[in-house]
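Q: I'm a student working through a structural biology exercise. My instructor gave each of us a protein and asked us to get a predicted structure, then write a short paragraph describing it. Mine is LXN protein. I'm not confident about reading structure output yet, so if you can add a plain explanation after the tokens, that would really help. Here is the sequence I was given:
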Amino acid sequence: QDIADVGHKYHLELVLEDVLAKDSTVNCTAEVLYHLGHQPSAPEVQVTLQGELRNTAEADNVFYNRVKSLDQELVAENIPDSQGTVPPALEPLHLLAWVASGYLIWQNSTESTKLQLAQVKRVQQVRRSDEYLEFDYLVLLHEMVSQEIIPWQMRVLWHPQHGVQVTEDRHQPQHRLQ
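A: Happy to help. First, here is the predicted structure for LXN protein. I'll explain a few features afterward.
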């Protein structure tokens, strides 16, 4: 729908599939408004779920307690690897990157882009004195229209009871991938 002097609004009906339990789905409707203008801005999104998503509290707490109990900061690279494999121990880091990169995608999407997380190139835990976990990620976003691979750094705060927050993000130059 074209809204004069405002932008373009899309009405969507989706079926969300649980990434861990493929047989679990939830119907969803969404309205997405892309604003007109010379200054890029994130689209406005309103979502309605018809049902409930699976509760991940138990798995979240297991991961949280495992990382909190480590003697050294957690570091990992190339998730998934070149064969597309995500080791089970790294799956929570990959899922956290997937959720956090959703913020990057939302903030940087336009009507003519289609971004998705391709790979976690590197992740390193940042030690904190409070109850949050903090990770410094370098992710590769795949822009499906242009086929460009875009490196992006993001700093992510997470706590199982408080959710995910991207506190910093910046586009990285291509030469940083080597």
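A: Here are two points you could use in your paragraph. The helical segments are 57-68, 91-108. The radius of gyration is 18 Å. It's a good idea to check both against the output above yourself.
Q: Great, thank you!
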